[in-house]
Amino acid sequence: MLKESEYGKIIILNGTPRSGKSSIALSIQNTFKGVWMNLGVDQFMQMTPNRFQPGIGLRPGGERPDLEPLVNTMYQAMYEAIAAFSRLGINVVVDVGHHEGYSVPLRILHRCSKILEGFPVLFVGVRCPIEVVMERRMNTWNVGYNNDGTVPRPIDLWQQLVHVPGIYDIEVDTSLHRPEECAQFIRQRLEDNSPAKAFEFIRNMES
């Protein structure tokens, strides 16, 4: 049985869509020492049959209560897979958008933190102002504000809910720093050897 120090490292990048998580994950894969597998939401959505989409990528707002039990199970499966890779000494980077904006409380992040109890997890908050998120959406999909100039409700909900409870080991802001710089900040945090306690705090939060 591996000692905890021999487990693969786990970096979980949490933020809204278009906040820059995928670019940071790619930089980590390309520049960090060792093998880093990406087991994020995009990869799981690609494996999900069309009739169950968006699956694990279900946005806040309680729009699809019929999918919520499956989403809960999919998150469990994703974190069990993360644990399996880490147990084999393989590093894992995960880009995800945790929220509790479902039709009923699912407490997914809390449940997932329990799956990774005893694992070396660095929980990273990926911040990005909504104005920058909207600009990136327009540049990527040519879809932006409502006709009256307001932010569409799902995007606004993402911005409000993705960083609740907001407990992280480190936070980065992709409006201020390039993905490569954010990855470097994360590398420095990994190398400073101070304990990563965010998941422990989340795991111990009262129901």
Automatic annotation (TrEMBL):
What keywords does the record list, in alphabetical order?
Transferase
Residues annotated as binding ATP: G15, T16, P17, R18, S19, G20, K21, S22
Which species expresses this protein natively?
Gracilibacillus salitolerans
Per its record, how is this protein called by name? Chloramphenicol phosphotransferase
Q: Which GO terms describe its molecular function?
A: ATP binding; transferase activity
At the highest ranks, the source species' classification is:
Bacteria, Bacillati, Bacillota, Bacilli, Bacillales
Tell me yes or no: is Transferase among this UniProt entry's keywords: yes
- Active-site residues per Swiss-Prot or TrEMBL entry: D42
Q: Which Pfam family is one of those matched by this entry?
A: CPT
SUPFAM superfamilies cross-referenced by the UniProt entry:
P-loop containing nucleoside triphosphate hydrolases
User: Superkingdom of this entry's organism?
Assistant: Bacteria
Tell me yes or no: is Ligase among this UniProt entry's keywords. Answer: no
